[in-house]
Amino acid sequence: MGTLTRREKQIKRKLERRPAALSNRDIDTVIDLLNADDVDIKRDVLERLATDIESFPDRIHEISATVFELFEDDQTSVRLGAIELAGHLSHSYRNGDYELGPGHTYFGKLRSCLDTESSRVRLRAVSVLGRLAATFPEDLAIGGFGENLVELVEGDDPMVAGVAAQALGHVGPETDGNLARDTLVTALYDANLWVRVGALWGLGTLGCRDPSLVADVRDLVGARVLDDKAEVRREATATLIRWAETTDLDLRPATEEIAGQLDETVDSLEPERLQQLTRVQPAAMSPIIEVATQVLTIHERSDARKQSLSVLRQIVEETPALAESAIAALTDALSVEEPNVRWMAVRLLRTLSGACRHTVRVVAEAEKERL
Hints:
It is elongated and about 85 Å long. It has helices at residues 6-16, 27-34, 39-52, 60-69, 76-93, 106-112, 119-135, 137-141, 145-153, 158-171, 177-187, 193-209, 218-223, 230-246, 252-265, 271-277, 286-298, 302-318, 323-332, 339-351, 358-370. The protein is 68% helix and 0% strand. α16 packs parallel to α18. It has 21 helices and no strands.
């Protein structure tokens, strides 16, 4: 396509004026612009179509046919834009089974991009498919998509593997749940931190959709809370919290694993770790009380000791069954050498005295000693 026609120039100007929505009468010219030689024009058209696509419900087939031709474009940036738009087409109209021709569907066309040599194209394709899998897991499970994802997770491209691991959590129950789980568990030990993060996200989703699939790997997820990378530690904690909030899984094995590892590193424990872990599951907090008590006595940082006091208070207030254990730990803090920590413990015990009667006497004695 060479010089733009007058109408095409008008549409091009309209594309550049972002607030102006495309109309149904613009679509023929828009499709022509997708065949332009100018890469910037193609990218602009693809981007605007992704925004305005719901304005053209009667022209989806024509738009889709042109967009899928761009999957083979010479310019990677155009291919990326076409894949993103195809995701919008699929998501907006739930056309996972909409036939574009013999054996070709929206999802099928997107999946064909997983075999390309371009890492950027594979990454964009698996990212779009992963988002679609969150809404249409049954549609995407058809035709071996789960097996495709397993191959990508086990592949040698860590960025693609991490995103594929997240998507695998969505379609795992519809394909082979055990295979999905085992693949994600193996990925927990990958050398690349983003693969580990993706595996944790995938396991979190898998467990929310079918808790029975992850019942035997709770402790393995708990172990990642002490990973050497902060991103992995955060995702492991977030995964346990998701399970706690959406399932009936007993997370004692996970917290016991965490507590066992915390015991070994308690002198260098990050203060926010304990606070986050109190959200995991109240019934599984006993090991965390023990660790919080150790933090009070041997941690080098005062902010960590103060954080542990806050954790113990939260447990007292939110988990009555563990109140006496937590208060006992708080009374131990009265013997800590640092005055500020002792006084903070006194203040907490005073406010919590109603939860356990003997704290009234303990607080009174501690205040007298301070005076």
